[in-house]
Automatic annotation (TrEMBL), chain A:
PANTHER family, per the entry: ABC TRANSPORTER ATP-BINDING PROTEIN, HIGH-AFFINITY BRANCHED-CHAIN AMINO ACID TRANSPORT SYSTEM PERMEASE
GO cellular component, one term: plasma membrane
MF terms (GO), sorted A to Z: branched-chain amino acid transmembrane transporter activity
Cell compartment(s), UniProt: Cell membrane
Keyword Nucleotidyltransferase: no
Membrane among keywords: yes
Top-level taxonomy: Bacteria, Pseudomonadati, Pseudomonadota, Alphaproteobacteria, Hyphomicrobiales
InterPro entries, per the entry: ABC_transp_permease, LivM-like
Protein name (database record): Amino acid/amide ABC transporter membrane protein 2 (HAAT family)
Domain of life where this protein originates: Bacteria
Keywords of this entry: Cell membrane, Membrane, Transmembrane, Transmembrane helix
Organism: Rhizobium loti
Residues spanning the membrane: 9-28, 34-57, 88-107, 114-133, 167-185, 215-238, 250-276, 288-311
Membrane-topology annotation of the record: Multi-pass membrane protein
From TrEMBL, chain B:
UniProt xrefs under CDD domains: ABC_Mj1267_LivG_branched (cd03219)
Keyword hit for Ion transport: no
Protein name from the UniProt record: Amino acid/amide ABC transporter ATP-binding protein 1 (HAAT family)
Domain ABC transporter: 5-239
SMART domains for the chain: AAA
Keyword line: ATP-binding, Nucleotide-binding, Transport
GO cellular component terms, A-Z: plasma membrane
Cross-referenced InterPro entries: AAA+_ATPase (IPR003593), ABC_AA/LPS_Transport (IPR051120), ABC_transporter-like_ATP-bd (IPR003439), BCA_ABC_TP_C (IPR032823), P-loop_NTPase (IPR027417)
PANTHER family, per database record: ABC TRANSPORTER ATP-BINDING PROTEIN, CONSERVED COMPONENT OF ABC TRANSPORTER FOR NATURAL AMINO ACIDS-RELATED
GO molecular function: ATP binding; ATP hydrolysis activity
């Protein structure tokens, strides 16, 4: 945000990307696959953080943007036979258009009403997926056939089912989105977004059209979430309506809260943390959700700013 | 000379209360105008109508020859009407630098160069004497400095009309002297509309004074004439001297 220490922030981001790259060669197979999935879902969380962390708009309907990307890309491959890159762009475009329309309507409200309106739109989207079961596969979902999940680059073709290709594609998407979001929040536009979060009335009186700025933020956020959904469909081959359910609107909120809202790396840390807590505790007991719940309550009680938010507050003020 | 700001029959009701009641007002360019009046006289409501923070019940506002009655606040700001808040509302969690950067980056004609923002911000901070506190979070500044930061933000908008709503409230005497110098300097390039309770400040700064009472303009004249005005004394002090 401030002018201070951009170099440190870039070094940190590049360091995290390099670490994730190296981990690809060190992790055992199971964790390798899990981390690929986590990176894709962390993109979802980064998109959510854009709106919730920086603009302070709490949406409970972001599953629809993820699902717009998921179904946009999935249906493009399955029903239209599009190639992987086109299908990805198609999914992203679906999310961007949906975010523009939803933003225009939902931003007429604020606060609790905004939460409810976004949640209702997401429910409509979810029910539409079930209603048009002929094309969407309803609650069964669809499998993107393996032969279609091939990325052709000239003479070489990369199979997205190959674990290394999948991991590297996920890392590529994660890195691009991380660098884009950190550039946005350091930019002048990012400064305006934070100003809106802190005091919208005052921001208006500095001559800013806060509605347009918020609308742009909804579109950026929705587009990033759709990119995550589109990548998920193409990399993991499953397009299901559960991804459009309310649970997937609440999950990114939890990931961001855990990792630290309005921190660039918080979404990754939160997603990672949640997955590993579930993974470890489910090895010991079938009541693992109970332990996850207790962990969440403790974190919110003692670290209300999330993991990275607390670290920034107590020790590392420069943390992006 | 054409007035910079004119209002015709400007009114605003809150329920049954006529907070501003048919006000006809004109402000010449380059003027420092003070608006005084007892609490609840409608001063803040009046300037809120001018700045667009609230909409009038009836009447018309003309700025620089154009009717601005229906324009949203942010467009009025872009046309040159800046408002500094009575209750300090700087962005407490942002640094003083970022607080001023927000208005500076919007008013820059070449929106690209990073150096231009820095130059503009530091110029506004230096004029208000806050340059050495640029990187402190605004919420940690002393109250007086927060008031000055508020003025710096108003200045950075490069306004043609700067509305200051009780700017000296809570300032120490030494800070008030600096403030008077600052407003005189601002008035070289801008018209100033000042709501103020501190009468010595008003008497020193104002070219003319408008007195509000019960939502209406009670009197409007030079500081000397207002000082001698019996009706004003009655409204303001409750008794004739």
């Amino acid at each position: 945000m401030s002018e201070a220490s951009p170099a440190k922030a870039y070094t940190l981001h590049l360091g995290v990307i390099a670490l994730l790259f190296v981990l690809s060669f060190l992790l055992p197979e199971y964790y390798h696959g899990l981390l690929a999935r986590i990176m894709v879902l962390a993109v979802f969380a980064m998109g959510y953080n854009m709106l919730f962390g920086y603009v302070g708009l709490l949406s409970l309907g972001h599953a629809m943007f993820f699902a717009a990307g998921l179904y946009g890309a999935g249906l493009a491959v399955i029903q239209l036979g599009w190639s992987v890159p086109l299908a990805f762009l198609g999914g992203v475009a679906c999310g961007a258009v949906l975010a523009l329309v939803i933003g225009l309507l939902a931003l007429r409200t604020t606060g609790v009403a905004f939460m409810i309106v976004t949640m209702m739109f997401a429910q409509v989207f979810y029910l539409l997926i079930l209603y048009f079961a002929t094309w969407t596969g309803g609650d069964q979902g669809m499998v993107v056939p393996q032969p279609a999940r091939v990325l052709s680059l000239g003479a070489t073709s990369l199979e997205l089912t190959n674990p290394t290709v999948r991991y590297m594609t996920a890392l590529g998407l994660f890195s691009i989105v991380l660098l884009i979001t950190s550039a946005i929040v350091r930019s002048r536009y990012g400064r305006v977004l934070v100003a809106i979060r802190e005091n919208e009335e005052r921001t208006k009186m500095l001559g800013y059209d806060t509605f347009s700025n918020k609308l742009a933020a909804v579109v950026v956020s929705g587009t990033i979430c759709a990119a995550s959904g589109a990548a998920y469909a193409l990399l993991f081959g499953y397009v299901g309506s559960s991804f459009a359910s309310v649970q997937y609107s609440i999950l990114p909120l939890l990931w961001v809260l855990l990792g630290g809202a309005a921190t660039t790396l918080g979404p990754l840390i939160g997603t990672l943390f949640m997955y590993y807590v579930i993974d470890i505790t489910s090895g010991y007991t079938s009541a693992y959700l109970l332990i996850v719940g207790i962990a969440l309550i403790l974190l919110v009680l003692f670290f209300p700013k999330g993991i990275l938010g607390s670290i920034r507050q107590r020790w590392l003020g420069w943390l992006p | 000379m054409m007035p910079l700001l004119t209002t015709k029959g400007l009114s605003r009701n809150f329920g049954g209360l006529r907070a501003v009641d048919g006000v006809d007002f004109a402000l010449m360019p380059g003027e420092i105008r003070a608006v005084i009046g007892p609490n609840g006289a409608g001063k803040t409501t009046f300037v809120s109508l001018v700045s667009g923070r609230i909409q009038p019940s009836s009447g018309m506002i003309v700025f620089d020859g154009a009717d601005i009655t229906g324009l949203p606040a942010y467009i009025r700001v872009r046309q040159g009407i800046a408002y500094t808040f009575q209750i300090t509302s700087v962005f407490a969690n942002l640094s003083a630098y970022d607080n001023v950067a927000l208005p500076v980056q919007r008013t820059l004609s070449d929106g690209r160069s990073k150096g231009a923002v820095r130059t503009g911000v530091m110029a506004a901070l230096e004029r208000t004497g806050l340059a050495d506190r640029a990187h402190m979070p605004a919420g940690q500044l002393s109250y007086g400095h927060q008031r000055l930061l508020e003025v710096a933000m108003g200045l950075a908008l490069k306004p043609r009309l700067l509305i200051l709503d009780e700017p000296t409230q809570g300032l120490a005497d030494s800070e008030i002297d600096n403030f008077i110098t600052l407003v005189r300097e601002i008035a070289k390039n801008a018209t100033v509309l000042l709501i103020e309770h501190n009468m010595p400040v008003v008497m020193q700064l104002a070219d003319r004074i408008t007195v509000f009472n019960a939502g209406k303009i009670l009197a409007e004249d030079t500081p000397e004439a207002i000082r001698e005005n019996a009706a004003v004394q009655e409204a303001y002090l409750g008794t004739a001297p």
